[in-house]
Amino acid sequence: MKVQVRRYRSCDAQATADVFRAAVLRTAAHYYSSAQLEAWISGSEDLAGWDQRRSAAWTVVAEIDGRVVGFADLTAEGVLDMLFVHPDRGRQGVGRALVEVVLGKARRRGLQRVRTRASRAGRPAFARLGFVVDAINLDNTIRGVRVPNFDMHIVLADPRAAGQRGWDRLRHSRLNYGSQPRHRYRPGGSGYERGLAARER
């Protein structure tokens, strides 16, 4: 199974709206009431309006075997506003692939951080990807219905600078703990990635 990420096109409106509704009604159903879910998906059936909103942001879709299984976006203000994965494709790397592409775009724009408003359902996934909670919005409303969410952000470190800091930490540890076993510390390896909390993964 390979996840492919590409730019959104207007012909993706129906597929992305379907992913959105499935994610809200199935995944988020464990965290919100029926009234909250209905308010959340209201308006998504208007495909012209939906397409206009997706096209207004820098939106990408994820495909598996040619089928759209998720989408994400980045607004002009540096906000990751939408990240939704079809519940049948949860925990298969789709969300991570989408976020990595969005954060790459943010870096190319010169942004130092990306913000998002995560639902109760989405907060754990964002946390695994390196986002931290800034505030809890208990009074957030959608079409007059309270739907609490979380303000979160991630700092976008320069990978080259992060790599240098990693080497500096290793050098310091060897100076102070010379008797400890020596391990290879290869930039780009999984241990290296786990050690850099500021990275996009």
Automatic annotation (TrEMBL):
One of its GO terms (molecular function) is acyltransferase activity, transferring groups other than amino-acyl groups. Residues 178-201 are annotated as: Disordered. Pfam families: Acetyltransf_10. Residues 3-157 form the N-acetyltransferase domain. PROSITE patterns: GNAT (PS51186). InterPro entries: Acyl_CoA_acyltransferase (IPR016181), GNAT_dom (IPR000182), N-acetyltrans/Recomb-assoc (IPR052564). PANTHER family: ACETYLTRANSFERASE, ACETYLTRANSFERASE (GNAT) FAMILY PROTEIN. This is N-acetyltransferase domain-containing protein. It comes from Buchananella hordeovulneris.
